Fold this sequence. Notes:
By secondary structure, the protein is of the alpha/beta class. 25% of the residues lie in helices and 15% in strands. The protein has a domain at 72-211: Alpha/Beta hydrolase fold, catalytic domain (Rossmann fold).
Amino acid sequence: MCQLVTRGQTSFPTSPEQPPPNLGPSSNFKMDPNLILKKAPPLHPAWLAHEEAFNLLTAKPVITDPNVSQKLYSDTCKAVNAELLADRDKYLTEHIATLEMRLEPNPGSANAHSIPIRKYFPISSSPVTKNIVIYFHGGGLYVGDLDSEDLTCRRICKALNCTVYSSSYRKMPQFTADDALSDALCTFKEVPSLKKEGKLVVIGSSSGGRRC
């Protein structure tokens, strides 16, 4: 641990015309009382209409079971993805194929488990780059999976015309942050063996970026 140590007293250049600055509690500075809000300002009517239209004002149930909250988050992402891919982002379904894969670290051991991976790859007639991307989803290490970042991975695949491997990892509190990092390292070591040439790019969103 580093510690910053200062020795002596701080001095300020002074002149007869300019006294040293007053840094003590006796300063003459006074806060403008108009800057202190007594209550929160009203929300814009357009935002209130948006909240009412999407039922955002209804109190949400308190969920204490992490398995339930993780499934709810995943189901919500799947529903949003389906809606967007059927309309606004339909182009992200064109000329892109996906393949569900799994890594099996420590097979046969007490720590054996599966790491879900989804491969996105272009199927267009244009030349495909040999570069690959490994993507780790976000979610604060508590939620998130392959579906929560599906649209992002499709955009990367389409924009860069490359293969994207979206990797999940074990989440808290069922597992530890070290377990999540271990899964990310396993993906980082194994996926590059699937390519013979080209560059490897590793990226992630939020907590997934911390796995990089």
